[in-house]
Amino acid sequence: MKVLVSLSDKLYARMQAVIPPRQRSKVVAGLLEEEVRRREQELYNCALAVEQDEQLQNEMADWDVSVGDGIETDTW
């Protein structure tokens, strides 16, 4: 798949100077992979923190009484 991205002229010139033409896509893909993995880990860590927050779990449990209250989400 091809993706169009915008770079500043200065960054593009620097990239051309240090990364050979046939390696640029691989380098960009590798950098994106690292960034996506880092952000996914951050989200996972946030989810773990929410699950381990006892006060929040207690507050959420208070809302369990609304389960089965007749409001169906698939009718919206």
Count of helical regions: 3
Structural class of the secondary structure composition?
mainly alpha
Which spans of ≥5 residues are poorly predicted at pLDDT below 50?
none
The gyration radius over C-alpha positions equals 23 Å
- Describe the largest sheet: none
Percentage of helical residues?
A: 55-70%
- By DSSP, the count of extended strands is 0
Distance between the termini: 36 Å
Mean pLDDT: 90
Strand content: under 5%
H/E topology pattern: HHH
Q: Assign an overall shape.
A: elongated
Can you give keywords for this protein?
single chain
Concise overview:
With 76 residues, the chain is mostly helical. Helices cover 63% and strands 0% of the residues.
Q: Would you kindly provide a written description of the structure presented here, covering whatever features stand out?
A:
By secondary structure, this protein is mainly alpha-helical. The chain has a domain at 8-53. The protein has helices at residues 9-18, 24-52, 54-62. The longest helix has 29 residues, at 24-52. The mean pLDDT is 90.
Write the layout of secondary structure elements.
Elements: H1 9-18, H2 24-52, H3 54-62
